[in-house]
Amino acid sequence: MKFRTPETITAEELHKMLDVIEHRILPLTEDFVRKGHNLFGGAVLDPVSLDPIVVGSNRRSDNPVFHGEVETLLRFYEQKDRPKAEETVFLATHEPCCMCFSALAWCGFKEAWYLFDYTETDKDFNMPDDLIMLKELFGSQDIRRRNSYLNLYSIKEAAKQSEDAERLMARIESLKEKYKALPVVL
Ligand SMILES: [Zn+2]
């Protein structure tokens, strides 16, 4: 498969990822948050069309390790005729925590994208655990987004370089407001 990078991804493809978040992941998350779960979500995408093969959203009240990414992986591996992980694209609404980033590597994903970064999860969503856990458990301030297992890219960084940057950034800001409005219990 042909991998995308922030330098090669098109504006249309970035809009498609935002469509998946807005129209497929967020409605599921709105439902799950009302049941006491957290606001993080994910999707496994077809590598060509970027259509979602599965979407998932955090189910922390059922099990604290059922993060948005883990829940998406559980759904993905329930599918009988699924493609190989390395032949798909992983999409996360928020930058994957150290557990979920490792899970993506264990599964064999090669290309992953996220919308909101650790700093936003900390400051805008008041959840600093990604950064605290990195420091406390691994003595690290950050993850290695480009490594021999997979590459993890920021949708926002790619959007800033895009020919349609203004519209993409406006959509991202609007999505952030929708996420911030979710009634999550901290
Ligand atoms: Zn996680």
Q: How are the SSEs placed, and which strands pair?
A:
Elements: H1 11-34, E1 41-45, E2 52-57, H2 68-78, E3 89-94, H3 98-107, E4 111-116, H4 118-123, H5 129-138, E5 151-154, H6 155-161, H7 165-180
Parallel strand pairs: 3-4, 4-5
Antiparallel strand pairs: 1-2, 1-3
Helix pairs in contact: 1-7, 6-7
The structure holds zinc ion.
Which key phrases capture this entry?
Cytidine Deaminase, domain 2, alpha/beta, 186 residues, 5 strands, 7 helices, 15% strand, binds zinc ion, five-stranded mixed beta sheet, globular
Question: Overview of this structure, please?
Answer:
InterPro entries: CMP_dCMP_dom (IPR002125), Cytidine_deaminase-like (IPR016193). Residues 42-114 form the CMP/dCMP-type deaminase domain. Residues 155-182 form a coiled coil. Helix 1 runs parallel beside helix 7 and helix 6 (155-161) packs antiparallel against helix 7 (165-180). The chain has 7 helices and 5 strands. The longest helix has 24 residues, at 11-34. Strand 3, helix 3 (98-107) and strand 4 (111-116) form a beta-alpha-beta unit. The protein is globular and about 35 Å long. The protein has one domain (11-181): 3-Layer(aba) Sandwich (Cytidine Deaminase, domain 2). It has a 5-stranded mixed β-sheet with strand order 2-1-3-4-5, sandwiched between helices. It is an alpha/beta fold and 186 residues long. The protein has helices spanning 11-34, 68-78, 98-107, 118-123, 129-138, 155-161, 165-180; strands spanning 41-45, 52-57, 89-94, 111-116, 151-154. The structure holds zinc ion (ZN). Zinc ion (ZN) binds next to helix 3.
